Protein 1
Amino acid sequence: MVKAVFTEEEKKNLKALTKEVPKLRSELETLKETLEILSCEGVLDRLEQSKKDFAEGRAYTHEEALKELDINEGEL
């Protein structure tokens, strides 16, 4: 059996890494989701159109959308 011997510096670095791994996993999952969304056909075109609509005032507030759809917020 091989026995590993770590220096204090290596121990410190390993502890730091154990704190960073969950953050990295989360970031990778976020990137994966972003890639999945952006790989859907037409998504970028729809995003660009949405940006134009918003800039030109063709957007609803939450309240306006509920009113337009005749939905009472209490029903949600």
Protein 2
Amino acid sequence: MQKLNIKYNIFVPSFLKEMVIDFSLYSGLHYFNLNTDPRQNVEQNKRRFCMLSTINHIEISQVVDAFKHIAYEEIGITNIFPEPMFGNFIGVNLEGGSVHEHQDSRDVSGNIHLRFNFMIQKPDIGGNPIINGKEYWIDEGECWMNYASEWRHGSTPVHGSRERIVLSLGACVPENIVRDVLSKRIGWEH
């Protein structure tokens, strides 16, 4: 099976990148909950997670939500619905941390759960996405699309003192739009 082209040439503006790093490592730590989602295989103190959609009263959440709409529109998707389970989030993996391989569900209307993921900070070693059993190399600053409800996905373990910080923008998109817009880019298999 040939690897998919999951990368897109969409970049987080430098001011937002700095905002996410500061929030993830310093100013917003009290918004991150360690080991709070029992569906994730989070090991003690190896992974932090912050659902920005649940704290929409702060500036970073509003800026990220505005950027989400810009990012999806840039690839031709204007008809998006909120992703109800995780929304927009920041994930931080520390030494030994990873995302276990899993597959999310579609929303109650059958819309496909998509995620635009941005590698805000690359760890010393590891932290690459795994999609359908294959590892993809993503450099710092790059982004990739994940059909979260259609593909098994996770990440390789982080090693070293530098954290992996990923900004993930979730949306639910009608299947016909995914087929028409995204199939031209990375292929639609159903």
Protein 3
Amino acid sequence: MLKKKKLFSNNNKKDLLRYAGLGTQLLVSIGIAVFTGLNLDKWLRTLPLFSCVLPLLALIAVFYKLTRETKK
């Protein structure tokens, strides 16, 4: 009789949770950067400078962290 493979083994569950956590960090950091940028633009009465620059910086930081985490 053939043994059925488990769809989610313990190792797959750990990887799934790890990558779900990284995706959540990406979304949260971009959201915080946009919120902070909009408030800074309103407070300093500037063009949408900070609301464009801060999310880009957050993306760079998160992708750097993502590449370091996935190299392991």
